[in-house]
Design goal:
- The complex is a heterodimer of chains A (224) and B (126).
- Chain A is of the alpha+beta class.
- In chain A, 46% of the residues lie in helices and 16% in strands.
- Chain A is built from eight helices and eight strands, in the order ααααββααββββααββ.
- Chain A has helices at residues 2-22, 32-50, 57-79, 81-88, 102-107, 112-121, 178-183, 188-197; strands at residues 92-96, 99-100, 130-135, 141-145, 168-172, 175-176, 206-211, 217-221.
- In chain A, strand 5 (168-172) and strand 6 (175-176) form a beta hairpin.
- In chain A, helix 1 runs antiparallel to helix 2.
- Chain B contains six helices and no strands.
- Chain B has helices at residues 2-44, 48-64, 66-72, 75-94, 97-118, 122-125.
- The longest helix of chain B is centred in the first third of the chain and has 43 residues, at 2-44.
- Chain B is elongated.
- Classes of the chains: A alpha+beta (224), B mainly alpha (126).
- Chain A binds chain B through residues 21, 52-58, 61, 64-65, 67-69, 71-72, 75, and chain B through 1, 3-4, 7-8, 10-11, 14, 18, 70-76.
Chain lengths: 224, 126
Amino acid sequence: MAISIIRTLIVYGTIVLSMRIMGKRQLGDLQPAELVVAVLISDLAAHPLQDIGIPLLYGLVPALILVCCEVMVSAGIMKSIRFRAFICGKPSLLISNGVIDQKEMKKNRFTIDELVEQLRKKDVVDIGSVKFAVLEADGTLSTILYSAEAPVTPKQLNLAPPDQERPVIIISDGRVLKNNLTLLGYNDTWLETQLKKRKARGPETVFLMTADQSGKVFFAQKEG
Amino acid sequence: MKKEILIFLLFAGLITAAFFNIRYLETLTTDLKVSADSAEKSAETGDWAGAEHHAQNAISLWQEHIPYTYIVLHHGSIERTEDVLHTLLKEIRGKDADVVKAAAQETSATLDSLLNVERIWLGSIF
């Protein structure tokens, strides 16, 4: 029993570290090779946990080797375009200038139902409004609509709205994140003023407070 | 790039460790087989004290390496090897040369299979 607990903790630590080394992608955004590695690691690591007659190394070594391969392949992908195309695949143009490329669809084993479904997910109901549709290497569909069908942008209306600044968390569940405060160029006095303005007794009574460089503040008081 | 270099070094380290492990097990199983063969030869000539001495040596040698083997080998294989070594000793104490010969051969086969699992050859890969 104790062995299982210790092994589980070791495997847990190793997998968390491995995932951290491999990067921050979401599961849905994984490239084919990354998905294979993620699935294999979880399966490999489980065996020594289920059977303590198997040395822990039998699970850890293959997992580490997979992480090494993954990082080295990623480095290769960054260096060589050909290698990138070989490992990740190339995007395919499924709709070009409004014309569905049936050959390309067949090549990617992408049915018309899937194409329509993917377009609907992007709020495109009329396939005729799509100028280009690209099946990306990770399996997602990107679309470019005809200008007449695309949403109007402020630029087209000759408007110049101010750019959105990146909001940063200043208080998270009662704790002041000093680094973020400094990052925005604010100090404790500014924070006190902001809290007083919102009638907060102190940071510990704040659930969430964000701010950006333009001075825009979002404030949410703790409940209860 | 620093991360990639470290990962490459880790990869190279793991490969080196794998080869070290094969070499380590080769040496260990060869030494054990030599002791088992010596025990068998001594038993054939009726030197039962010598045979027992060789078998004891094999058991001691195996036990010395137990901590390492538990890290790199299936625990079932370790117990099976320990069993055949003790069986060899038991048969030597029974003083029947034919039975000792069979026990020594079983020991040798068990040690071979132990190494074959780790050694790089088509059979162990596939």
